[in-house]
Design a protein that fits this description.
mainly alpha; 137 residues; 5 helices
Length: 137
């Protein structure tokens, strides 16, 4: 994909997202299309089949042929998104995982966001946590 295609795709995605949010909300709306699209792109890096096709279609600026599959998922998110990933047994470590995500958020936001995940939000039935924090300083 050419750089201009990616830029136009991101702008189109952002405008469509704001239109949708404004049609649903009354009053002020704060959202970060870049953060949302980055989170979805990270997720798409581990998707396959129809799920991947739908995500690529929705995001508009991803090239389905260039997305690595699961075997390189951790390298993809580390290299391109500076994101972290780890395997967790939520059956026995749900509260520990919640604490780790909150610690990550606190460190990355310089203490502005200390509780991204409230108590009880991570359960033994949780299969994945995808966290993203946006703050103003």
């Amino acid at each position: 994909m050419e750089l201009m295609q990616i830029i136009h795709g991101q702008i189109s995605y952002s405008l469509n997202l704001y239109k949708k949010l404004l049609s649903m909300e009354q009053g002020n709306v704060v959202a970060s299309p870049l953060s949302i699209s980055a989170a979805l792109a990270i997720t798409a890096g581990g998707a396959r089949g129809e799920t991947l096709n739908q995500m690529v279609s929705h995001l508009k600026f991803l090239d389905n042929k260039k997305l690595p599959l699961h075997t390189t998922y951790q390298n993809l998110i580390r290299e391109y998104y500076r994101a972290e990933s780890s395997a967790v047994d939520f059956g026995t470590q749900a509260e520990w995982a919640r604490g780790q995500v909150n610690l990550w958020a606190s460190q990355k936001t310089r203490g502005k966001i200390n509780e991204l995940l409230p108590p009880g939000s991570v359960k033994s039935s949780t299969t994945m946590i995808l966290a993203n924090a946006l703050y103003f300083f």
